[in-house]
Design brief:
38% helix; alpha+beta; two-stranded antiparallel sheet; five-stranded antiparallel beta sheet
């Protein structure tokens, strides 16, 4: 009986040590990002947060909201309205031109925009689905509030720098998680490259700026990069395995794709914080 008791205690202690070792191996990854958040798009649960409510510049990740409104407008297969105002934008543009008679459907323009970026496409999309630029921005803010992104305020449809244009890692993850529930939105953001077709003839070749999407991470399927001088490089990334989608927002990171991969790998392999992870054959704790 005494030996049996000693044996039982030894078994329990060994099990505890094994659990402790596994916990140590599953230590939270160290990331470069100033702020980050991970949300399970399938359940809505928040899984990770670092400075998640710190107000920061979202840059081009703003275009997620632009695309949400575009998809939900029901006008995605109409020819987009082009404006001379959008042609005055410099830098990150697709190059749509009124005088050249460019014609492109809203869906294809949004796909090009979410692949390579394009402030001109963002502004033209805004006036395609709303009576004015101002009304579109108002709709962006209303939608953010409806999603629960309560620390976000937009002043333009593209993410151009403005001290009153801001968001947080938590809010951007919420917006991304909401967006990825839409099959139409998913179709805009999962392209490593995209030949945007004009309605008449010809195409515009777009290569993704999303390094995470082309990193080889199993299940990577979106979403959008961004960068501003004050806000630094940022990324909202998503990955889906076996029908389960996680979304990570990464703000001000010198390795935004690496940070996203580290966080999403961690949740796959540990199923941390009650998550079921994005389980797959190579996972070890989902």
């Amino acid at each position: 009986m005494i030996m049996s008791l000693k044996t039982s205690i030894a078994v329990v202690l060994a099990a505890c040590f094994t659990m402790f070792s596994a916990s140590a191996l599953a230590a939270e990854p160290q990331i470069d990002a100033q702020a980050a958040c991970v949300i399970d798009s399938t359940t809505g649960n928040e899984l990770y947060a670092k400075n998640a409510d710190q107000r920061m510049y979202p840059g081009g990740t703003t275009m997620m909201m632009n695309s949400i409104l575009g998809v939900e407008s029901g006008e995605v297969d109409t020819v987009m309205t082009l404006s001379y105002a959008s042609e005055q934008l410099a830098g990150d543009v697709i190059g749509l031109c009124v005088d050249l008679g460019d014609k492109v459907t809203l869906r294809n323009a949004l796909t090009g925009m979410m692949t390579v970026g394009g402030c001109d496409a963002a502004y033209d999309a805004a006036v395609t689905v709303s009576p004015s630029l101002d009304s579109f921005v108002q709709a962006m803010n209303a939608k953010a509030a409806a999603i629960g992104a309560s620390h976000t305020h937009f002043t333009n449809p593209a993410g151009l720098p403005d001290e009153n244009h801001y968001s947080t890692a938590r809010d951007l993850a919420k917006i991304g998680a909401y967006a990825m529930k839409s099959a139409d939105f998913r179709g805009l953001v999962n392209h490593a490259s995209f030949d945007m077709p004009y309605a008449d003839s010809g195409t515009k070749h777009c290569e993704t700026t999303n390094e995470f999407l082309t990193s080889g991470f199993t299940g990577a399927d979106g979403i959008k990069t961004g960068a501003t001088n004050d806000g630094g490089p940022c990324l909202v990334a998503s990955a889906t395995r076996n029908g389960h989608t996680l979304v990570a927002s990464i703000l001000n990171s010198s390795d935004r794709a690496g940070d996203a991969a580290a966080l999403l790998t961690w949740f796959c392999t540990t199923g941390s914080s009650g998550s079921t992870g994005i389980c797959c054959d190579e996972c070890h704790g989902c």
